[in-house]
Amino acid sequence: MENERPVRIFPALVRHFFGRFFDKESLSPQGEPEAGVIQTLGILAAPEAFFVLLFRPLTFTGWNLVAVRYLFISFSMIVMGFIMVFEWDALFPDKRDYQVLTPQPLRLSTIFLAKTAALSLFLGMFLVDVNFFGVLFWPGIDARPGLISNLTSHLLSVAAGGLFSALALASVQGVLVTLLRGNLYRRVSVFLQTLLMAVLVMLLFLSPLAAGRMQWMAAHHPEYLYYFPGFWFAGFYESLRPATHNAVLRDLGAFAWRGLGCAALVFLVTYLPGYRGHSRRILEAPAPGTAGPGCLRVWCGAILQRMLLRHPVEWAVFRFITQTITRSMKHRLFLATYGGFGAAMAVMALASGRSGIFELPLTLSFILVSGLRAAFNFPSELAANWGFQLTETGGIWPYLAATRKWIVVCAVLPLFVLLAPMELARFHWPAAMFHLAYGISLSVILMEVMFLGFRKVPFTCAHFPGKVNLVFLGVIYVFGFTTYSGTMASLEAWLQVRPAAALAFLVAAAAGWAALSIYGRRVLGPKAVLDYEDPADPVVRTLGIAVR
């Protein structure tokens, strides 16, 4: 019996660690982890199936075929990157794991091997799911002779690209755990996780643009192709099954092998030492957020409380929003997704010429405000909203005012502060100041429009994902990226050469904001109360027929 015990313990540990990868907070109280996993697998498998059906009627050769290959490789790499970033904190056992497993008669090597096996199964499952339909139906896109060579080349390329992405991001986590300690590790880790999510979203939207520019880069600036690993594995694909016989692409193929080997080596070198050090430090580490605020934060908070947030409820809600966004992983990643999309739109806008420069601030502010509007609907910890329910005795207006002030102070103004150097570099300072004032004014008005009827404390209301009207959201975003940005940018260009009209616009914008604020109060009514639960579908539906 003693000889059989390790055999039984190891599979149990693997199952435990594998299940922990799916042990994530749900966005609604009704969320079921099993249903979420199935939906996630289906969503990730769908894009390649769609791409295959879209490309099958077409005939691709040469650089066009290389571009299509790059799209499949890039999608595999980005999705595997998404998974690793989302599971960032699960790559190493957390405090709960160590508290449960350390008292058991288990060797650290056994726990490490079980965690590694669970991680391999987890990554393998998603790697197969993401690329299944692409590999299965790829011969319909590349119809050249050699079915086995065709399938094998595509499978090896997309799998190698996805594996490199996963190992590279796991190596980053391993390096952080090995080199950093305590609060510094947590802060850097949170920052990198958020940044990587934004970068991956940006790359996802820019992939078609990069695919279309590969031939130009290979001919004019081949060194650019070495900057992004996706190009390496497009070259690796070319070395397995040539489509252009381009020497630059063949050299990239060799570079891909070296990159994959380096990622695997760094992962192995850092993961085991980092694992041992992490196991010793995790039990002694203080809970996140226990460190006191810095002097600068205290000073800024005192100024805000004295000048802008004089009502105690406003200060409480303002602080609550700040703490939730900085501590909630799901909200950080959700907003990082919007940030990555905004960065992709910024690149496209700057590439479109002078008109894109005018549209850029408006597009970014639209994405920012709409992203916050969506994030505020998702609850953080529903059990904690009783504090707001008990204190809601003096009306809802301080709660709503604090939300709007937070958006302006912590989102809109920082965005335009970041854009200010670019404006000052491209325009004379009077024109740059007008651009900034114009963008801030429109952003505040946009905020009032988007938050009409919003009567919640952010992150405290139960959310039912099925209640979202996707058609309505689609119309809003199409309007935002076309009519709103384009029309307002044209108006800005017209006002720029007419100082009197520009001043009149700013005055009219202030009056419009005041009118929207008054209208919003009338829409909610004098007896409005805060919402803490979205209205669900009724259990019994009635026809509304009355007998008279």
Describe this structure in words.
The chain has 548 residues and is mainly α. It is built from 19 helices and no strands. It has helices spanning 5-20, 33-55, 62-86, 95-101, 108-136, 147-179, 182-212, 214-220, 229-240, 247-281, 295-307, 312-327, 329-351, 354-375, 386-391, 397-426, 429-450, 470-496, 499-524. The model is unreliable at 1-6, 25-31, 287-292 and 537-544 (pLDDT under 50).
In short:
With 548 residues, the chain is mainly α. The protein has 19 helices and no strands.
**Average residue-wise pLDDT:** 80
- Major sheet characteristics: none
The helix-and-strand class reads mainly alpha
Number of helices: 19
Which percent range describes the beta-strand content? under 5%
Overall shape: it is globular
Distance between the termini: 79 Å
Radius of gyration: 27 Å
How many beta strands in the DSSP annotation? 0
Residue windows where pLDDT falls under 50 for at least 5 positions: 1-6, 25-31, 287-292, 537-544
